[in-house]
Hints:
Blueprint: H1 2-21, E1 34-45, E2 48-60, E3 65-79, E4 87-104, E5 107-123, E6 133-149, E7 159-167, E8 186-194
Antiparallel strand pairs: 1-2, 1-8, 2-3, 3-4, 4-5, 5-6, 6-7, 7-8
Amino acid sequence: MKKLSILCGIFLLTQGLFAQDEEVKEKGFKKEKLFSGGTVSLSFFNNTFLIGGNPIFGYSLTKWADVGVVANYNYSSARDYQYVNDRLRQTNYGGGVFTRLFPVNFLFAQAQFEHNFITQKFVAPPNSGLQNSTFKTSGNSFLIGGGYTSGRYPGNNNFFFLSLLFDVSNNPNSPYTDYLGRPIPVIRGGFNVALFQKGRNR
């Protein structure tokens, strides 16, 4: 958790320094900078399968930085979790906050903090004599990575994007790790929709 706090602090400090350097043409809240959208998550890794959906709602702080909130629902299934031919099925739901930085209009870096509520079901191997069981918990995740967009630039905040994220929190309860605690590559594809934009520069 200490490493997570340090990473968050460094990230927010860096973003604040960049924001101070940018020339501000318009002050105050602008509804034209609001956007919505969502993603679909899909991952395969070491006998683990994950799929999910993530609606988002955000605001463009500058020409190169977005922030927002995200909700999520994910389902994952792992095979040979503890025994040969067993299954671990997991569902989780939760939410969090994210930021995206755009060094160019078609590439971005992303950091996202989440808290998820998790239900795990252990399915015992056939004819093993073991019992099925259910376990509920919760956990934090800190996803970092980057992605590609179809084009984000002043006057256009409607685009499709594809991203690759990894959880660096080292939290054993994260839904984005396999049964050995290793990060699962999370591939997310989705869309960004400007809510009030009318073809003007932001």
